Amino acid sequence: MSVLDNFEQWKDFLGDRLHQAQQNGVPQETINELAYEVGEHLSTQVDAKNDEEAILRDLWNAASEEERHALASTMVKLVQNEGTDR
């Protein structure tokens, strides 16, 4: 089973990556920009594996560039307290 198959596992995976980046001193602005790039990639290259991902993709596709940056930043905040080390 892939982490993309289950939204809770996906959030844990993202939370773990976020915590690793923070522990390695990656600036928040860089983290948010990477989240934006991941969102761009997922919206165009990856099929949604569950309802939550489909909703996020639809929101992403309906959003302006500025709104997409806000969505990416919000996703970072969403997974802040997620992960296997929490």
UniProtKB/TrEMBL annotation:
The record, for InterPro entries, names: DUF3243, Uncharacterised_YmfJ, YmfJ/YflH_sf
Q: Which domain of life is it from?
A: Bacteria
Q: Please state what the protein is called.
A: DUF3243 domain-containing protein
Question: What organism does this protein naturally occur in?
Answer: Piscibacillus halophilus
